[in-house]
Amino acid sequence: MIQYSIRRILASFPVLLGILIATFVLARLIPGDPCKAILGEKATQEVCAQFAERYGLNKPIYVQLGIYMGNVLRGDFGTSIRFSRPVTVILVERLPTTVELGLAAMTIALVVGIPAGIISAIKRNSVLDVVTMVGANIGVSMPVYWLGLMLAYFFALVLKDTPFWLPPSGRLSPGVTVVPFYQVWGWTVPEAGFWRGVLDFVARLYLFNSLITGNWKVFRDALTHLILPALALSTIPMSIIARMTRSSMLEVLRLDYIRTARAKGLTERLVILKHALRNALLPIVTVVGIQVGNLFAGAVLTETIFGLAGVGSILFEAITARDFPIIQAFTVVIAIGYVVINLLVDLSYVFIDPRIRLE
Amino acid sequence: MASTSVPLSSSVRDYRANSLWRLTLRRIFRQRPAIIGMTLLGILVFCAIFAPVIAPYDPEAVLIGVEDVRKREPPCIHLLGCPKDRPQHLMGIDGNVRDVFSRIIFGARISLFIGITTVSFAILVGTILGAVSGYVGGWVDLVIMRILDVLLAFPSLLLAIAIVTVLGRGLQNALLAIAIVSIPVYARVVRASVLSVKENAYVLASRALGGSHFHVLLRRILPNAIPPLIVQGTLGIGTAILDAAALSFLGLGAQPPTPEWGTMLGTERNQVFTAPHLVFFPGLAIMITVLSFNLLGDGLRDAIDPRLKQG
């Protein structure tokens, strides 16, 4: 087990290194002068020279890469060219929005997708199965942004003045403010630094923050704002998870040991949930890992539609403005997050299927 | 030689009749989803080919002064009670006073073109990389696969956005970006096929008989990769169309006035509350197109790979 984990963790290092280099190179390949992009086309050569000096853009490219790698290892992503603020601070501001959105979407996808797949497999070829699978097929084929716009239209306009009305944009209603949990609890916190960043990050997960502080008004407000974007973002993973659960369950339900389990008189519920599902889980978990990556990509589109200031929207803006430090930092964080989650998925195989340990 | 004139025995004829392709075709026609997929695709191809005949207007023609229509007018269908003296516009009028229906019909051409060209390019490059990687093995395999792993570590749409920013906006660059990000999938499929048969006796025999590496790879090994590639490719076309539309939606792909569905949706997205038809129809068109490829791809997979055949 430990050997397997270590081997698997070590194997992901080259990929992480590759990600760092690839992002650096890609960001430099973006044509156009960042100085002109930020300070305007009329910026003089002298001003631009100072600008390049300040952000280290005048050094040879390999020196820049070296400095960059060193800084990243120390957790320093530099200063945003456009906002003139440390990238880590912006990261702490923006990441919670996307994390909250992604978690909510994944929760919906799992809570709906897995049971739907199981029921479909048990009641194979029934009306329920056909309807679920048609729904899943449509779900994977839908553009996220289109669904988002249609949901916003339906819930914010058609259902206006009904109890089902939902807000079409933002994270909170105007006038609603979130008090960080550490202030509510009267903690003395450092002005800046790593721990302050962690605390701020947690506090900006509005749902979690309002839940632990028991502020139900904010909780409800944040929740109603989260429903539509999370729903839009969840459709693709939900459909894929439902389809994978169904086919994986069908595969397992055919096996002899299931017949044995039934023959010894176990209840159907026990056979399905304990005997069949456990063995069917492996491909499902793999798919979930892959879908996490797609969630980040979907977040770019969903955040644009629903006016959310998350990672997706800032990354898109940064690319257009050639704000190298932001592009690098956010892409690296997303890619690392993706690699780490898939690492966890790989490690979870061992728990789900102990036979893997022996290989 | 005399043997060529000997009539085929019935068992050989049976064998031919049951060749992989015929069997596949027969199995496909037994699956309802695949039939629905093919029908939808047939309609789309028909629309794409006969677009000038089907579309009542030029997709880029502005109707100001031509007809008495307003900007973003909702659909007017005579059969559904729209006054007969009003000009008929099945899907309404867009923000630049153009007929949306005509634009949707012409959009089928662009979307099908996008899907097929990007996937063809990705399959071509992916096959070369995967074949070399699997056949040569060793450090070549290691280097190629690690590079592809890095590509796979980025969410495909984000990587495509970054590549388009490097190359510049526009449909052509968007196509290239989507093709690049989909290469790893095909490379992996081909590599897996190559690895699975590389050491088989018939491959070694072909080498022993003096076949060059190129000959063995092309004629003996790669044909094994064709079925999974077809399945993956069909499903990939759907994804490519979806990604291309997303890039266009963000303003990075096809530029106005091109009647591309994603662009149409993107330019009118702020009007969703006032003119929902401008958002609804392009999205529906994207969904139906992607759905048709997905249904067909699923059907093909079940038909080609009997192990997955259920019941």
Secondary structure layout plus pairing:
The complex is a heterodimer of chains A (359) and B (311).
Chain A: H1 2-29, H2 34-39, H3 45-54, H4 61-73, H5 87-122, H6 127-141, H7 144-158, H8 181-184, H9 194-203, H10 206-213, H11 216-253, H12 256-263, H13 268-305, H14 311-321, H15 324-352, H16 355-358
Helix pairs in contact in A: 1-15, 5-6, 5-9, 5-11, 5-13, 6-11, 7-11, 7-13, 10-11, 11-13, 13-14, 13-15, 14-15
Chain B: H1 10-17, H2 20-28, H3 32-49, H4 51-54, H5 100-136, H6 138-153, H7 156-167, H8 171-197, H9 201-208, H10 213-221, H11 226-249, H12 261-267, H13 277-304
Short description:
With 359 residues, chain A is an all-alpha fold. Chain A has helices at 2-29, 34-39, 45-54, 61-73, 87-122, 127-141, 144-158, 181-184, 194-203, 206-213, 216-253, 256-263, 268-305, 311-321, 324-352, 355-358. The longest helix of chain B has 37 residues, at 100-136.
Task: Kindly describe this structure.
The complex is a heterodimer of chains A (359) and B (311). Helices cover 76% and strands 0% of the residues of chain A. With 359 residues, chain A is an all-alpha fold. In chain A, helix 6 packs across helix 11, helix 7 packs across helix 11 and helix 7 crosses helix 13. Chain A is globular, with a radius of gyration of 24 Å. The N and C termini of chain A lie close together (10 Å). The mean pLDDT of chain A is 86. The two termini of chain B are 46 Å apart. Chain B is built from 13 helices and no strands. In chain B, 45% of the residues are buried. Chain B is 67% helix and 0% strand. Chain B is elongated. In chain B, helix 11 packs parallel to helix 12. Classes of the chains: A mainly alpha (359), B mainly alpha (311). Chains A and B meet through helix 1, helix 6, helix 7, helix 13 and helix 14 of A and helix 6, helix 7, helix 11 and helix 13 of B.
